[in-house]
Amino acid sequence: MKYSFLLILTLIIFSCATSKKIPSAGKLIGDILIKNINIVDVENGVIVSGQDVLITAKRISYIGNHNRRSLAAKQMIDGSGKYLIPGVWDMHVHTLEEDWYKWQFPLFIANGIIGFREMWGDRNLIDSVRREIQKETMPFFSFHSIRTHP
Fold first, then answer.
1. pLDDT 10s digits, 46-91
2. Considering its fold, how many domains does the chain have in total?
């Protein structure tokens, strides 16, 4: 459940800049539908209440007022009383040492962190974690390593 929510959050962040208005005719069908969610608009400093968010092929395909459009999806999430926010980056972490990431990554997800800047880490471990993320065997994170040691 935590991974699903973070995935949705990540999708919203990465696709908000490219999302387009969809014509009002016909039923829209997607993969995930979040119904009646409150969206935190950090750009304008407001909360946009009662929104439906449709995700299709890992991209946001529609955002609009709750029940204004006919929407369907394989997975439905009731967003009533919940908030959807852009993902957060932690710009100073020390997580890619030994197996620290195994207990730190779940904490990142639980707190909405979708990316981080690694300040120190083992190059082999960093490469291994990147491969696991690419294979989708661990949660998606975007990260940048500042300094490494062998």
1. 999 999 999 999 889 999 999 888 999 999 999 999 999 888 888 8
2. 2
